[in-house]
Design brief:
The structure is a homodimer.
Chain A (H helix, E strand, L loop, with lengths): L25 H12 L4 E2 H8 L3 H13 L3 E6 L6 E6 L1 H34 L10
Antiparallel strand pairs in A: 1-3, 2-3
Protein backbone atom coordinates (compact mmCIF):
# COMPACT_ATOMS: atom_id res chain seq x y z
CA UNK A 1 0.00 0.00 0.00
CA UNK A 2 1.28 3.45 -0.85
CA UNK A 3 1.95 5.66 2.12
CA UNK A 4 -0.25 8.72 2.58
CA UNK A 5 1.50 11.78 1.26
CA UNK A 6 2.62 13.62 4.37
CA UNK A 7 2.71 16.91 2.57
CA UNK A 8 -1.08 16.93 2.42
CA UNK A 9 -1.39 16.80 6.19
CA UNK A 10 -1.72 20.18 7.78
CA UNK A 11 -2.53 19.94 11.46
CA UNK A 12 -6.04 21.18 12.11
CA UNK A 13 -6.74 21.68 8.39
CA UNK A 14 -10.22 20.27 8.92
CA UNK A 15 -10.75 21.19 12.57
CA UNK A 16 -13.22 23.98 11.74
CA UNK A 17 -12.73 25.78 15.03
CA UNK A 18 -15.08 28.50 13.80
CA UNK A 19 -18.07 26.18 14.09
CA UNK A 20 -19.16 27.89 17.30
CA UNK A 21 -20.81 25.23 19.47
CA UNK A 22 -23.48 27.62 20.70
CA UNK A 23 -24.70 28.17 17.15
CA UNK A 24 -23.88 24.83 15.53
CA UNK A 25 -27.14 23.12 16.44
CA UNK A 26 -29.86 22.30 13.95
CA UNK A 27 -32.72 24.10 15.71
CA UNK A 28 -30.54 27.12 16.53
CA UNK A 29 -29.48 27.47 12.92
CA UNK A 30 -33.17 27.57 12.01
CA UNK A 31 -33.87 30.18 14.67
CA UNK A 32 -30.91 32.37 13.69
CA UNK A 33 -31.69 32.13 9.98
CA UNK A 34 -35.32 33.03 10.64
CA UNK A 35 -34.23 36.03 12.69
CA UNK A 36 -31.64 37.25 10.20
CA UNK A 37 -34.33 37.21 7.49
CA UNK A 38 -36.51 39.45 9.66
CA UNK A 39 -34.57 42.33 11.20
CA UNK A 40 -37.85 43.85 12.36
CA UNK A 41 -38.38 40.84 14.65
CA UNK A 42 -40.39 37.63 14.66
CA UNK A 43 -43.16 36.73 17.10
CA UNK A 44 -42.55 33.64 19.24
CA UNK A 45 -45.49 31.72 17.77
CA UNK A 46 -44.39 32.50 14.25
CA UNK A 47 -40.81 31.49 14.95
CA UNK A 48 -42.11 28.24 16.40
CA UNK A 49 -43.90 27.54 13.10
CA UNK A 50 -40.99 28.60 10.88
CA UNK A 51 -38.63 26.28 12.73
CA UNK A 52 -41.21 23.58 13.36
CA UNK A 53 -40.35 23.42 17.06
CA UNK A 54 -42.41 22.82 20.19
CA UNK A 55 -42.95 25.64 22.69
CA UNK A 56 -40.57 24.04 25.15
CA UNK A 57 -37.85 23.39 22.64
CA UNK A 58 -37.97 26.86 21.17
CA UNK A 59 -38.01 28.43 24.65
CA UNK A 60 -34.97 26.39 25.68
CA UNK A 61 -32.93 27.36 22.63
CA UNK A 62 -33.95 31.01 22.91
CA UNK A 63 -32.88 31.01 26.55
CA UNK A 64 -29.40 29.85 25.54
CA UNK A 65 -29.14 32.36 22.70
CA UNK A 66 -30.51 35.19 24.81
CA UNK A 67 -28.23 34.28 27.71
CA UNK A 68 -25.27 34.68 25.38
CA UNK A 69 -26.56 38.04 24.15
CA UNK A 70 -27.18 36.89 20.60
CA UNK A 71 -30.95 37.27 20.68
CA UNK A 72 -33.11 39.93 22.26
CA UNK A 73 -36.70 39.32 23.34
CA UNK A 74 -39.32 41.91 24.04
CA UNK A 75 -42.84 41.51 25.38
CA UNK A 76 -45.34 43.81 23.70
CA UNK A 77 -48.54 44.82 25.48
CA UNK A 78 -50.59 46.28 22.64
CA UNK A 79 -54.18 45.37 21.82
CA UNK A 80 -55.07 41.73 22.30
CA UNK A 81 -52.85 39.30 24.18
CA UNK A 82 -49.22 40.06 25.00
CA UNK A 83 -46.79 38.94 22.38
CA UNK A 84 -43.10 38.08 22.61
CA UNK A 85 -40.99 39.42 19.78
CA UNK A 86 -37.50 38.09 19.07
CA UNK A 87 -34.69 39.78 17.21
CA UNK A 88 -31.06 39.16 16.52
CA UNK A 89 -28.80 41.54 18.49
CA UNK A 90 -25.97 43.32 16.69
CA UNK A 91 -23.36 40.98 18.28
CA UNK A 92 -25.62 38.04 17.44
CA UNK A 93 -25.74 39.05 13.81
CA UNK A 94 -21.97 39.48 13.70
CA UNK A 95 -21.32 36.13 15.34
CA UNK A 96 -23.79 34.34 13.10
CA UNK A 97 -22.17 35.84 10.00
CA UNK A 98 -18.76 34.67 11.24
CA UNK A 99 -20.15 31.21 11.83
CA UNK A 100 -21.60 31.21 8.32
CA UNK A 101 -18.16 31.93 6.89
CA UNK A 102 -16.81 28.79 8.51
CA UNK A 103 -19.84 26.82 7.31
CA UNK A 104 -19.06 28.00 3.80
CA UNK A 105 -15.50 26.78 4.21
CA UNK A 106 -16.80 23.30 5.08
CA UNK A 107 -19.04 23.31 2.02
CA UNK A 108 -16.25 24.58 -0.24
CA UNK A 109 -13.69 22.06 1.06
CA UNK A 110 -16.06 19.14 0.73
CA UNK A 111 -17.49 20.20 -2.63
CA UNK A 112 -14.04 20.71 -4.13
CA UNK A 113 -13.07 17.26 -2.96
CA UNK A 114 -16.30 15.68 -4.19
CA UNK A 115 -15.73 17.18 -7.63
CA UNK A 116 -12.08 16.11 -7.71
CA UNK A 117 -12.82 12.74 -6.12
CA UNK A 118 -13.29 10.42 -9.09
CA UNK A 119 -10.15 11.71 -10.80
CA UNK A 120 -8.00 11.41 -7.67
CA UNK A 121 -9.35 7.97 -6.98
CA UNK A 122 -8.10 6.79 -10.35
CA UNK A 123 -4.58 7.71 -9.23
CA UNK A 124 -4.81 5.92 -5.88
CA UNK A 125 -4.98 2.27 -4.93
CA UNK A 126 -8.63 1.48 -5.50
CA UNK A 127 -8.31 -2.27 -5.71
CA UNK A 128 -10.01 -3.04 -2.41
CA UNK A 129 -13.51 -1.96 -3.32
CA UNK A 130 -13.86 0.35 -0.34
CA UNK A 131 -13.65 3.59 -2.29
CA UNK A 132 -16.90 5.43 -2.99
CA UNK A 133 -18.88 4.29 -5.99
CA UNK B 1 -45.88 47.98 16.24
CA UNK B 2 -46.68 46.59 12.82
CA UNK B 3 -47.86 42.99 12.81
CA UNK B 4 -45.60 40.42 11.22
CA UNK B 5 -46.74 39.68 7.72
CA UNK B 6 -48.41 36.29 7.97
CA UNK B 7 -47.79 35.53 4.33
CA UNK B 8 -44.08 35.19 5.05
CA UNK B 9 -44.67 32.35 7.51
CA UNK B 10 -44.33 28.94 5.96
CA UNK B 11 -44.42 26.19 8.54
CA UNK B 12 -41.05 24.50 8.77
CA UNK B 13 -39.47 26.94 6.31
CA UNK B 14 -36.37 27.06 8.48
CA UNK B 15 -36.58 23.62 10.09
CA UNK B 16 -33.68 22.20 8.02
CA UNK B 17 -34.71 18.61 8.54
CA UNK B 18 -31.88 17.55 6.25
CA UNK B 19 -29.28 18.49 8.87
CA UNK B 20 -28.75 14.84 9.74
CA UNK B 21 -27.93 14.70 13.47
CA UNK B 22 -25.37 11.95 12.98
CA UNK B 23 -23.32 14.18 10.68
CA UNK B 24 -24.09 17.63 12.08
CA UNK B 25 -21.36 17.67 14.67
CA UNK B 26 -18.25 19.81 14.39
CA UNK B 27 -15.67 17.01 14.72
CA UNK B 28 -17.64 14.69 12.44
CA UNK B 29 -17.82 17.34 9.73
CA UNK B 30 -14.05 17.58 9.94
CA UNK B 31 -13.67 13.82 9.71
CA UNK B 32 -16.08 13.48 6.79
CA UNK B 33 -14.51 16.38 4.91
CA UNK B 34 -11.04 14.91 5.44
CA UNK B 35 -12.24 11.55 4.14
CA UNK B 36 -14.06 12.95 1.12
CA UNK B 37 -10.87 14.76 0.11
CA UNK B 38 -8.97 11.46 0.22
CA UNK B 39 -10.90 8.66 -1.47
CA UNK B 40 -7.81 6.47 -1.20
CA UNK B 41 -8.14 6.57 2.60
CA UNK B 42 -6.54 8.40 5.51
CA UNK B 43 -4.52 6.81 8.32
CA UNK B 44 -5.94 7.21 11.82
CA UNK B 45 -2.96 9.24 13.06
CA UNK B 46 -3.13 11.55 10.09
CA UNK B 47 -6.87 12.03 10.47
CA UNK B 48 -6.31 12.86 14.11
CA UNK B 49 -3.91 15.62 13.06
CA UNK B 50 -6.10 16.95 10.25
CA UNK B 51 -9.07 17.27 12.60
CA UNK B 52 -6.99 18.24 15.64
CA UNK B 53 -8.67 15.62 17.80
CA UNK B 54 -7.45 13.39 20.61
CA UNK B 55 -7.18 9.63 20.10
CA UNK B 56 -10.21 9.02 22.28
CA UNK B 57 -12.35 11.66 20.64
CA UNK B 58 -11.52 10.54 17.12
CA UNK B 59 -12.11 6.87 18.04
CA UNK B 60 -15.49 7.70 19.54
CA UNK B 61 -16.67 9.65 16.48
CA UNK B 62 -15.35 6.99 14.11
CA UNK B 63 -17.21 4.34 16.07
CA UNK B 64 -20.48 6.22 15.56
CA UNK B 65 -19.82 6.81 11.86
CA UNK B 66 -18.66 3.25 11.29
CA UNK B 67 -21.61 1.86 13.22
CA UNK B 68 -23.91 3.69 10.84
CA UNK B 69 -22.02 2.35 7.83
CA UNK B 70 -20.75 5.73 6.69
CA UNK B 71 -17.08 5.03 7.30
CA UNK B 72 -15.05 1.87 6.72
CA UNK B 73 -11.88 1.08 8.64
CA UNK B 74 -9.22 -1.40 7.72
CA UNK B 75 -6.14 -2.52 9.62
CA UNK B 76 -3.11 -2.95 7.43
CA UNK B 77 -0.29 -5.29 8.47
CA UNK B 78 2.49 -4.25 6.10
CA UNK B 79 6.03 -3.43 7.12
CA UNK B 80 6.40 -1.56 10.36
CA UNK B 81 3.58 -1.23 12.87
CA UNK B 82 -0.05 -1.94 11.95
CA UNK B 83 -1.94 1.04 10.65
CA UNK B 84 -5.66 1.78 10.62
CA UNK B 85 -6.92 3.29 7.39
CA UNK B 86 -10.26 5.04 7.18
CA UNK B 87 -12.40 5.69 4.14
CA UNK B 88 -15.83 6.99 3.36
CA UNK B 89 -18.19 4.20 2.23
CA UNK B 90 -20.34 4.74 -0.85
CA UNK B 91 -23.48 5.29 1.30
CA UNK B 92 -21.43 7.56 3.54
CA UNK B 93 -20.38 9.67 0.60
CA UNK B 94 -23.97 9.88 -0.64
CA UNK B 95 -25.32 10.84 2.77
CA UNK B 96 -22.63 13.44 3.33
CA UNK B 97 -23.34 15.01 -0.07
CA UNK B 98 -27.05 15.18 0.81
CA UNK B 99 -26.20 16.77 4.11
CA UNK B 100 -24.01 19.31 2.31
CA UNK B 101 -26.95 20.30 0.13
CA UNK B 102 -28.96 21.21 3.20
CA UNK B 103 -25.98 23.04 4.65
CA UNK B 104 -25.79 25.06 1.44
CA UNK B 105 -29.48 25.90 1.85
CA UNK B 106 -28.79 27.32 5.32
CA UNK B 107 -25.93 29.41 3.96
CA UNK B 108 -28.00 30.64 0.98
CA UNK B 109 -31.03 31.52 3.12
CA UNK B 110 -28.97 33.38 5.69
CA UNK B 111 -26.71 35.11 3.16
CA UNK B 112 -29.67 36.30 1.09
CA UNK B 113 -31.24 37.72 4.22
CA UNK B 114 -28.01 39.31 5.40
CA UNK B 115 -27.62 41.03 2.03
CA UNK B 116 -31.25 42.19 2.01
CA UNK B 117 -31.22 43.06 5.72
CA UNK B 118 -30.34 46.73 5.77
CA UNK B 119 -32.90 47.56 3.07
CA UNK B 120 -35.68 45.66 4.80
CA UNK B 121 -34.82 47.20 8.12
CA UNK B 122 -35.37 50.65 6.69
CA UNK B 123 -38.95 49.63 5.95
CA UNK B 124 -39.62 48.25 9.44
CA UNK B 125 -39.87 49.88 12.86
CA UNK B 126 -36.25 50.36 13.80
CA UNK B 127 -36.75 52.91 16.54
CA UNK B 128 -35.87 50.65 19.46
CA UNK B 129 -32.23 50.15 18.77
CA UNK B 130 -32.49 46.36 18.85
CA UNK B 131 -32.01 45.84 15.14
CA UNK B 132 -28.56 44.85 13.95
CA UNK B 133 -26.06 47.66 13.51
Amino acid sequence: MSRPKKSRTETGRFAYEGLDRLLHEKARLGILTSLITRPEGVAFIELRALCDLTDGNLARHLEALEGAGLVVSEKSQGEGRPKTMLRLSAPGRKRFLEYLEELERVVRDARAAAAAGPKRRALGDDSRGLAPA
